[in-house]
């Protein structure tokens, strides 16, 4: 209430009191006249009060309609969030600071295989005489990926799976074909010198096109043997390394100095139960270029080189050995048929390879060829082997394998219509075929020759991409291994095999 209203009401009260007192002191007629005058005055005051109320109401409406002042009173800001939960396109969860300069993400993959062999050794002298059918957790990985201050990247990934569902090595109870350690990735990478990255630790080296392609995206359950034999020398995953890589949209180049795989024995001296081995040293390099690059088609070419400077050296005998081998492009049974055995007196090794890939809509083609050279000490001649593969796929539902400049490889299929009983989608379907051959025979009929065998494998596959995170793979393999007992003994110890296998894959 305004001060003026308060004064009017006070005046009205005073008049009423005076009127009441006068009524007791005067005659009835005089009193009636005074009452009439007071009533008139009170009514006049009431009218004035109503007029004032109307003016106040109009003033309040004008104030509400007036524009805000040019400099409003600042309110206290809401507290900024300290972290934001994000989800990548392939459903990988991460927690980041609001500026995205610091992030940590969880990653995992499970490749669960089941399959069986129809295996036929050529003679009783063939080793092995049988391959075992069954189930294998080929990969069972979980880990963290992250970024610090925008340009420091790191990874720590542990693999609980393997070719034998367990660990191998020299310790009691170790399994043939098993990994020597579960550490698959443990590295730090600095990307501040764009477009280059300097990195080191245990990592999956992007050496060869097939190895640069994620195991979540390869066309078949296993990579072709020629590439596996090459990467096992001084590349591949679980490998200790330090190097530099860089890329543009078309060009990719990288080189790494490499050491042993994680878990490999490196002891300068032997004990009563364990023979010491020194660490091996080598290097790998890769250079690729996209000759054609379009939304609907592409053409990719590249070259690779690998050098083993020093193989592991036996601390007791001083022996320098190297074994080239692989399983028959399936890991249900970890036994290798194709194998040179331990090549003695090795001073070093070199591997040179070429790679090519192309895409045209739903069609995809890829191939690589390798030349292996093993140097030996003294008067022993060098050994030369070779091998390669060619593969192609057709995505029946029309999706494409897209090129990924950061790895100079092609990614997997992202279904246009993920499988859903409610939504009516059926995912993406892909047919694939591959031919691979590798010859690990050299200088046959000579005492210093090697009879590792010649393996040929034909593979056809059907892939069902349920969504971005789930894939089912069905492979059929037919293969032969032509092998003799030794370089100077031509007795047949080869084999033939057929195999059917299926993989259930979950990854993010």
Enumerate the strands of the largest sheet in spatial order, edge to edge or round the barrel.
Answer: 3-4-5-6-7-8-9-10-11-14-15-16-19-20-21-24
Order of helical and strand elements:
HHEEEEEEEHHEEEEEEEEEEEEEEEEE
Distance between the termini: 69 Å
User: Which shape, going by the Cα principal axes?
Assistant: elongated
Mean pLDDT over all positions: 89
Q: Helical element count?
A: 4
Q: In percent, how much strand structure appears in the residues?
A: 35-45%
Category from helices, strands and their pairing: mainly beta
Largest pleated sheet:
16 strands, antiparallel, barrel
Helix content: 10-25%
Q: Compute the CA-based radius of gyration.
A: 40 Å
Q: Poorly predicted ranges (pLDDT <50, ≥5 residues)?
A: 14-20, 22-26
Quantity of strands, as a count = 24
Strand and helix layout:
Elements: H1 3-25, H2 28-65, E1 84-87, E2 93-96, E3 103-121, E4 134-148, E5 152-159, E6 183-190, E7 196-203, H3 209-212, H4 225-234, E8 239-247, E9 251-261, E10 281-293, E11 297-310, E12 325-326, E13 338-339, E14 346-360, E15 363-376, E16 383-395, E17 403-404, E18 409-410, E19 428-442, E20 450-465, E21 470-482, E22 484-486, E23 489-492, E24 495-507
Antiparallel strand pairs: 1-2, 2-3, 3-4, 3-24, 4-5, 5-6, 6-7, 7-8, 8-9, 9-10, 10-11, 11-14, 12-13, 14-15, 15-16, 16-19, 17-18, 19-20, 20-21, 21-24, 22-23
Helix pairs in contact: 1-2
Key attributes of the depicted protein:
508 residues; mainly beta; two-stranded antiparallel ribbon; 15% helix; elongated
Characterization of this structure:
- By secondary structure, the chain is mainly beta.
- Helix content is 15%, strand content 45%.
- The strands form four sheets. The protein has a 16-stranded antiparallel beta barrel with strand order 3-4-5-6-7-8-9-10-11-14-15-16-19-20-21-24. A two-stranded antiparallel ribbon has the order 12-13.
């Amino acid at each position: 209430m305004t001060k003026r209203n308060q004064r009017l009401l006070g005046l009205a009260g005073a008049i009423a009191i005076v009127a009441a007192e006068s009524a007791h002191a005067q005659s009835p007629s005089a009193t009636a006249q005074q009452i009439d005058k007071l009533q008139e005055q009170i009514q006049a005051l009431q009218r004035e009060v109503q007029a004032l109320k109307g003016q106040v109401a109009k003033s309040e409406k004008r104030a509400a309609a007036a524009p805000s002042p040019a400099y409003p009173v600042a309110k206290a800001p809401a507290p900024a969030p300290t972290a934001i939960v994000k989800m990548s396109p392939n459903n990988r969860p991460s927690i980041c600071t609001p500026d995205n300069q610091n992030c940590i993400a969880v990653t995992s993959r499970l490749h669960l295989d089941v399959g069986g062999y129809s295996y036929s050794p050529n003679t009783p002298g063939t080793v092995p005489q049988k391959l075992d059918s069954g189930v294998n957790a080929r990969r069972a990985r979980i880990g963290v990926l992250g970024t610090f201050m925008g340009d420091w990247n790191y990874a720590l990934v542990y693999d609980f799976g393997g070719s034998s569902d367990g660990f191998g090595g020299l310790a009691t109870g170790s399994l043939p074909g098993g990994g020597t350690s579960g550490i698959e990735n443990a590295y730090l990478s600095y990307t501040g010198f764009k477009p280059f990255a300097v990195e080191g630790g245990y990592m999956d080296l992007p050496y060869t096109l097939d190895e640069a392609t994620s195991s979540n995206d390869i066309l078949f359950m296993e990579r072709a043997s020629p590439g596996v034999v090459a990467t096992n020398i001084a590349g591949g995953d679980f490998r200790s390394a330090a190097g530099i890589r860089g890329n543009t949209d078309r060009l990719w180049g990288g080189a790494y100095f490499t050491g042993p795989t994680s878990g490999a024995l490196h002891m300068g001296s032997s004990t009563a139960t364990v023979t010491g081995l020194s660490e091996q040293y080598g290097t790998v390099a890769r250079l690729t270029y996209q000759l054609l690059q379009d939304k609907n088609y592409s053409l990719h070419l590249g070259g690779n080189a690998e050098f083993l400077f020093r193989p592991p050296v036996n601390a007791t005998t001083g022996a320098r050995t190297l074994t080239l081998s692989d399983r028959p492009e399936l890991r249900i049974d970890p036994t290798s048929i194709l194998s040179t055995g331990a090549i003695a007196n090795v001073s070093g090794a070199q591997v040179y390879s070429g790679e090519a890939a192309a895409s045209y809509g739903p069609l995809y083609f890829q191939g690589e060829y390798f030349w292996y050279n093993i140097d030996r000490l003294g008067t022993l001649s060098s050994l030369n082997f070779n091998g390669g593969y060619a593969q192609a796929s057709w995505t029946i539902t029309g999706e494409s394998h897209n090129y990924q400049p950061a790895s100079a490889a092609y990614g997997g299929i992202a279904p246009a219509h993920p499988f859903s009983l409610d939504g009516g989608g059926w995912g993406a379907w892909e047919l694939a075929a591959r031919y691979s051959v590798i010859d690990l025979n050299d200088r046959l009929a000579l005492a210093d020759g090697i009879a590792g065998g010649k393996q040929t494998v034909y593979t056809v596959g059907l892939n069902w991409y349920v969504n971005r995170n789930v894939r089912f793979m069905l492979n059929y393999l037919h293969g032969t291994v032509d092998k003799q007992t030794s370089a100077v003994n031509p007795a047949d110890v080869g084999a033939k095999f057929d195999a059917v296998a299926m993989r259930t894959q979950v990854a993010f």
